[in-house]
Design goal:
This protein is an all-alpha fold. The chain contains 13 helices and no strands. It is found in: Cell membrane.
Amino acid sequence: MTDRSPFARAGQYLALLCYLVFLAFPLLWLVSTAFKSPQELGSVDAEWLPRHPSLDSFAAAFEQQPLVRSALNSLVVASCAAALSVAVAVPAAYVMVRYRSVVGRAATGWILVSQMFPFVLVIIPLFLVLKSFHLVNSLSGLILVYVVWNLPFALWMLQGYVRAVPASLEEAAAIDGCGRLRTLRSVVLPLLTPGVVATVMFSFVTAWNEFFFALVLLKSPEKQTMSVILTHFIGAEGAADLGPLAAAALMATLPSLLFFALLQRRLVSGVLSGAVKG
């Protein structure tokens, strides 16, 4: 098998570089806009980088909207939704893999079908159900919605990791006197750590960035999440207060980026392991 030519390898690196620039450009432009002074934002000739970096947009953003409170709301909702989704998905995925039945196969099919439902199709019945339980305009109701919405993906993802755990390990634990719950906690769960980390990551980011459900279900300003607060920087006629909007959007983006950076090694290894072994 011959080695690839230097031109082919250089072309691959060039294509990868172009792709990275394409992905990074919106974030770089957001950072540049957030640090521009009001004079530069109002200039007809847009500059790539701020000539005189300023924090005026950040100060204006905090003055105009309750960013700290909305960020705390988003953090509570995303953290609780991610934790509950994984807490339900891990034992459910274990049961679906280890106890195969018609119900399990039907549940797997339903998981795939449910991902094709658009938000608009379910929002009205969902709103009516939450209203009957007095969960509209509450963070608890929004957390419940995110848990239900994240569960299909979490179950689908974790099933591959459960299949990768040898059944012989569980049989050995049973011979040593471990029950099902103890086997799941002491034997299976430690081996599922990469998959759990990856699922937590995706569930957290999905809940943090979600907009439509939060917009419809949360009406009180003090309960709104970060994604909804960002729309308040846009006027009734569609005119955006560009500087504060960019500053607020940057602050809304940083938590998910930092969370991803902290867990990227576990995330990449977990996704590859689940894809190959599942």
